[in-house]
Design brief:
Strand order of the largest sheet: 3-4-5-6
Number of strands: 9
Helix content: 25-40%
Number of domains: 2
GO cellular component, one term: protein-DNA complex
Order of helices and strands: HEHEHEEEEHEHHEE
CATH superfamily of the largest domain: Winged helix-like DNA-binding domain superfamily/Winged helix DNA-binding domain
Number of helices: 6
InterPro entries: CheY-like_superfamily, OmpR/PhoB-type_DNA-bd, Sig_transdc_resp-reg_C-effctor, Sig_transdc_resp-reg_receiver, WalR-like, WH-like_DNA-bd_sf
Structural class: alpha+beta
GO molecular function: phosphorelay response regulator activity; transcription cis-regulatory region binding
Organism: marine sediment metagenome
Distance between the termini: 45 Å
Largest sheet: 4 strands, antiparallel
Pfam family, one: Trans_reg_C
Length: about 180
């Protein structure tokens, strides 16, 4: 999009679509730049040079993760509601104090998986396989970064979480309060 940088373009696309976004840059970026790209809605962030086989495999993986949701009659209804947080996985809706919260597609997949498995501790590996794909099962930092983003958006006090709980050395779980 003319006049927009990569972050702004990513953000504009994300406002209207859940299409997978793979951001490719020609120069080395800092961890902050990569986190910023992911915050703006990118599903992948790659630094050139990237081999053709790897790029094609990452595109295939992104498309697999972005498969259309099942038809309404095949989906199970997953909801959660208390005075602070409302979640409707089927409708892809998350509300905090009655206000809809914007989550990136990946943030939503991660949060929905936690809510669907409420009170069950999910390992880093389980979360990575379900949300990012099997090729990411050793990249625990992805989970930590996204959990941090979710806490910033959902928790009343992100430094003292009530919903997205950590099981040290194992993983995370969603804790129902009602």
């Amino acid at each position: 999009m003319p006049g927009l940088d990569g972050w702004q373009t990513c953000s504009r696309i994300r406002e209207v679509s859940d299409v997978p976004i793979i951001k490719i840059t020609g120069r080395h970026k800092s961890e902050e730049d990569i986190a910023r790209g992911l915050d703006y809605g990118a599903d992948e962030y790659l630094i050139k040079p990237v081999g053709n086989k790897e790029l094609v495999a990452r595109v295939r993986a992104a498309l697999r993760r972005a498969e259309l949701p099942p038809s309404p009659d095949k989906r199970k209804e997953i909801t959660y509601n208390d005075d602070f947080l409302t979640v409707d996985v089927t409708e892809r809706k998350v509300m905090v104090k009655g206000k809809r919260i914007k989550l990136t597609p990946r943030e939503f997949r991660l949060f929905a998986f936690l809510v669907e498995n409420a009170s069950r501790i999910l390992s880093h590996k389980q979360l990575l396989e379900k949300v990012w794909g099997w090729e990411y099962t050793d990249d625990v930092d992805y989970v930590r970064i996204y959990i941090s983003h979710l806490r910033q958006k959902i928790e009343p006090d992100p430094t003292n979480p009530r919903y997205i709980m950590t099981e040290p050395g194992v993983g995370y779980y969603f804790q129902k309060l009602s």
